[in-house]
Amino acid sequence: MINLEKVKAIRSGFAYVSHMLDYPSEEILSLEFRNGLVRDYCAMSQRASVLTILDELRGQKLYDLQKHYSDLFDSNKRFTLYMTYYKFEDSRKRGTLLAKLKLLYEMFGLEISERELADYLPMMLEFLAFGHWQGDRRRQDINLLFQVIEDGTYHLLKRGREYRDDPYFRLIDAVRKELKACLEQEADVS
């Protein structure tokens, strides 16, 4: 079960992580972005890790960062940030799940661009940051989003074991840990 109060407390951090996982731009290399992350990301358990990763990214030239990102996620068929692809590839089940995710976004006031599929990890994190799910009785539907992120990132990191030191893979691992911290611990029944 997801502790939505914990998610609410750290939701602004998801916007920064979303930008960091998207195609690199001048924005994430700016001091303003870093200062905003420091200011808005205070409640997250992975704050120190994310700041270390951001500083590592900021230490590179934008072109080099963009090339690395493209080589890793765009030109490489092993890795993708589309979370349902690992389990369903291009099957009908994936299409059904994408439709459910799109409906979830719309249900909570977030319209998605036709350019991106609903399972794109940066978009999913933006939904957690900007969706209007607080106080809505249907907010438990967010469980689906957590499940898709959990499953997709698990398979991505498993496929990319040799990339575990790569900043993007470390950032994805930090996302997994952050989301895990938002789960209610089940009482041990002995």
Radius of gyration: 16 Å
Instruction: Determine the mean pLDDT.
Output: 89
Largest sheet: none
Count the E strands.
Answer: 0
H/E series:
HHHHHHHHHH
Percent range for helical residues?
Answer: 55-70%
Q: Are there runs of 5+ residues with pLDDT below 50, and where? A: none
Distance from first to last alpha carbon: 20 Å
How many structural domains in the coordinates? 1
Q: Given the helix and strand composition, which structural class is it?
A: mainly alpha
What's the total helix number?
10
Strand content: under 5%
> Could you say which overall geometry the principal axes of the C-alpha atoms support?
globular
What would you say this structure looks like, in words?
The protein has one domain. The mean pLDDT is 89. The chain is 63% helix and 0% strand. The chain is mostly helical and 190 residues long. Helix 1 (4-21) packs antiparallel against helix 3 (31-40), helix 1 (4-21) runs antiparallel to helix 10 (167-180) and helix 9 (142-159) packs antiparallel against helix 10 (167-180). The chain has helices spanning 4-21, 26-29, 31-40, 47-58, 62-74, 85-88, 92-107, 121-130, 142-159, 167-180. The two termini are 20 Å apart. The chain contains 10 helices and no strands.
Note the main attributes of this structure:
single chain, 190 residues, mainly alpha, 10 helices
